Amino acid sequence: MQVEVVKSKIHRVKVTGADLNYVGSITIDEDLMDAANFIRGEKVQIVNNNNGERLETYIIPGPRKSGEITLNGAAARKVSVGDVLILISYTWMDIEDAKKFNPSLVFPNEANNLLT
């Protein structure tokens, strides 16, 4: 039997930009991506703590040490700069492996989205 489990999570980052005129995605500081074990093009769930919105899109890397979290395209309508988000990716695995699996959990500095 397989189950879907949390693979990676970036907990409580602030939106730094919203670009409606960009082809859809979320831009994430590449340092945060590495820490969370996210990869370019990976599907992520975005949970907006400020307004309750939940959506899915894919990741594009942003400049390192920038703290950038920018929602692009239609997703830009679901956030405001300064909103607090949780970014989550999931994976499927055998249930016995899932019982032993430890996801990558990242808790950046909430003031600037940088790793401390």
Describe the fold and architecture.
The chain is built from two helices and eight strands. It has one domain: Barwin-like endoglucanases (Beta Barrel). β4 and β5 (54-62) form a beta hairpin. The longest helix is centred in the N-terminal third of the chain and has 7 residues, at 30-36. The model has no long low-confidence stretch (mean pLDDT 97). The protein is globular, with a radius of gyration of 14 Å. It has helices spanning 30-36, 95-100; strands at residues 2-14, 17-19, 25-29, 43-48, 54-62, 69-72, 84-94, 104-106. An eight-stranded mixed sheet has the order 2-6-3-5-4-7-1-8. The protein has 116 residues and is mainly β.
Largest sheet: 8 strands, mixed
**Classification by helices and strands:** mainly beta
The level of helicity is 10-25%
- From the 3D coordinates, which CATH architecture would you assign? Beta Barrel
Number of strands: 8
Q: What topology, given as strand order, has the largest sheet? A: 2-6-3-5-4-7-1-8
Proportion of residues in β-strands: over 45%
Q: Please name the CATH topology.
A: Barwin-like endoglucanases
* Count of discrete alpha- or pi-helical segments spanning 4 or more residues: 2
Order of helices and strands: EEEHEEEEHE
Number of spatially distinct domains: 1
State mean pLDDT (0 to 100 scale).
97
Spans with pLDDT under 50 lasting ≥5 residues? Answer: none
| Through-space gap between termini | 39 Å
Shape: globular
Task: Assign the CATH class.
Answer: Mainly Beta
Radius of gyration: 14 Å
Catalytic activity: L-aspartate + H(+) = beta-alanine + CO2
InterPro entries: Asp_de-COase-like_dom_sf, Asp_decarbox
Active site: 25, 58
GO molecular function: aspartate 1-decarboxylase activity
